Amino acid sequence: MSYPSIERARLNRATAHLDAPFAVVDLQAFDANARDLVRRARGKPIRVASKSVRCRALLARALRQDGFAGVLSFTLAESLWLARCGFEDVLLAYPSADRAGYAELTGDRDLAAAVTVMVDDPAQLDAVDAARTGTEQVRVCLDFDTSLRLPGGVLRIGARRSPLHSPAQLVELARTVVARPGFRLVGLMAYEGHIAGVGDAVPGRPVHSRMVRLVQSAARRELAGRRAAAVRAVRQVADLEFVNGGGTGSVQFTAAEPAVTELAAGSGLYLPQLFDHYSSFRGHPAALFALPVVRRPGPGVVTVLGGGYPASGVAGRDRLPAPYLPAGLHYDAYEGAGEVQTPLLGAAADGLRIGDPVWFRHAKAGELCERFDAVQLLDGERVVDVVPTYRGEGKTFL
């Protein structure tokens, strides 16, 4: 019996009492992925990226493991909610324009102590001051642009994030923060998405994969030098508590930089299918969802309920959930993943009956939780708990 068949049988036995659709997280795989991230982090703490988890119980589970410390959040409202729920070190990864959130933050001593906001423009400091309701000092982190820019500025490789690309630009804003009453500069973040979030071993695309590896190698060298210079310069202005960098795909490389004091990762806990194609690490699919077979239109085809759960980013086939088990199923090229129903083709379809579950992996990590209000937690062949997602707690931050 093949591994996919054994794995499918295990999942089916564990969830035989459930009616699909439902989502599961395999705790043994989750914990193994967490340990692998810690191993690759080389002793540096990992801040958990909450957007890649979107479930308080699983955020807490990761943070209970040695090697994890703090949360990297994605909205100010989420940051304040997590702080009120007892998460003590929450770094907001993106600038915010949430006036109500800033009003709450500046008027509450405990929240102001627990939450650090992200800034890359003096106008964002103005937004905080315009919303102030109290005198609490706001903890500030500067966002450093990690993109690789080739000579002449004709080509940029990396996300369009912060305008602060040079150490001099970063220092200028650092001085502005330090000189401004009501703010305290405590950190620097430099997320290298073009290295951490792009697979370099894509099946069937050897030339593309080699080019990705070459570009990423050049980008790592360039960024290591520029990031070190930026950190040295900013430390002349403020006594930084942390320098954050990395991501699931680059943890081991960023950990080797002396200037970086902590890493960030989240997707590697669930291991969605976009993270299958890296040459530097392997993980275990932990987050899955099951959809029921509701039609059998003909030989070699079944139709499941729902399935249209595309991931964010540039639209393409790689953003669709991947049929996982039974192995060998694929989408109809003319229908893809449907809003209400999804036809699946392949020889494995003939072995499926009405009501049988088909297992999928989402393209990305936490976005799966926007589709389900609860996650079934599996340990071996048993569901050992059911925990709410952000959606299940009535929290739709984005």
Describe the SSE topology.
Layout: H1 3-14, E1 22-26, H2 27-41, E2 46-49, H3 56-63, E3 68-73, H4 76-84, E4 90-92, H5 99-106, H6 109-114, E5 115-119, H7 122-131, E6 138-143, E7 148-149, E8 156-157, H8 167-179, E9 183-190, H9 193-196, H10 206-235, E10 242-245, H11 251-255, E11 262-265, H12 267-270, E12 287-298, E13 301-305, E14 322-325, E15 330-331, E16 341-345, E17 357-361, E18 374-379, E19 382-388
Helix pairs in contact: 5-7, 8-10
Produce a short descriptive summary:
With 398 residues, this protein is of the alpha/beta class. The chain has two domains: 125 residues, Beta Barrel (Lyase, Ornithine Decarboxylase, Chain A, domain 1); 239 residues, Alanine racemase (TIM Barrel).
Structure description:
By secondary structure, this protein is an alpha/beta fold. It has two domains: 3-21 and 286-391, D-serine dehydratase-like domain (Lyase, Ornithine Decarboxylase, Chain A, domain 1), CATH 2.40.37.20; 28-266, TIM Barrel. Helix content is 31%, strand content 24%. The protein has helices at residues 3-14, 27-41, 56-63, 76-84, 99-106, 109-114, 122-131, 167-179, 193-196, 206-235, 251-255, 267-270; strands spanning 22-26, 46-49, 68-73, 90-92, 115-119, 138-143, 148-149, 156-157, 183-190, 242-245, 262-265, 287-298, 301-305, 322-325, 330-331, 341-345, 357-361, 374-379, 382-388. Strands 1, 12, 13, 14, 15, 16, 17, 18 and 19 form a nine-stranded mixed beta sheet that branches. Strand 18 (374-379) and strand 19 (382-388) form a beta hairpin. Helix 5 (99-106) packs across helix 7 and helix 8 packs across helix 10 (206-235). The mean pLDDT is 93.
